[in-house]
Amino acid sequence: MTGQIDQLIKPGSGRGLLDVYGDRFLLKLLVRKEIKVRYRGSVLGLMWSYVKPLVQFLIYFVALGIFLNLQRGTPNYAIYLFAGIVLVNFFTESLSNATRSIVDNRDLIRKIYLPRELFPVATVWVSAAHFLPQLLVLIGACLVVGWTPSILQLAAVVLIFLMVAVLATGLGLIFGAINVYFRDSENIVDMIVMVVTWASPVLYVWSMVERVMGPWFWIYQLNPMTVAVEVFHWAFWEPSLKSDQLVGATMPPDLLTVWLPVAILTTLVILFVGQLTFRRLAIHFAQEL
Questions:
Q1: In 3D, which of 240, 264, 234 has the Cα closest to residue 84?
Q2: pLDDT beyond 60 at 9
Q3: Contact 187, 229 (CB under 8 A)
Q4: How far apart are CA 40 and CA 85, in angstroms?
Q5: pLDDT(12) > 60
């Protein structure tokens, strides 16, 4: 009996995200469950991954590209717009679902012990399953207009995907844990999601912000999602332009040499803080739920 008690794991004393890797089979099951539950009774099923961003793209393109005539000063504005939308949608969906993941799985958490980090991480994987089809559509559209990326730009796409996934995981751990104790976290995240689209150069070009902020433009660049969207534009939009369209279509200065490393470092710090916060608060999840 004593030997069995010694094998028990004290709540909050696990290895955190390392346990998620160790229990990746459970992670796979949770991802499958989340996808099945989300589309249960749905006629279109996973096709909604295409329909929702397509409708969102059409609304923004008509309102901003045509009515406000932003496409006149931004060549291949449709590519520019869609490249930003698919990335921001991946982040906002991941963060929103990760915030609600612990509360939504309260019944499972109360009954059995398993690494609590599995739930927010699983929601990010589910969002990735929605993101990848959209990415394929974006690549197809880019190829139609003559997309010629370099190896470095293709590598940047993978790097940004991983960075945004890690960023959403870190923030999801923070807000997901706090949401168990204070449901206001969901409302805070909803506001963050609403702001992110406008706080990143998705619907407009970065130079507009630079003209307004002047020497304070660096504050705008501190947002990891801002840098992520700018790198996505560099990887998808810029290689789709013809030589005569490249005039004035430059990326922010020091994007790859300064701001991308800063964004990666900020993301890793957020992940560390998220894991630390989650482990401290996870001890009493079962009681609070």
A1: 234
A2: no
A3: no
A4: 26
A5: no
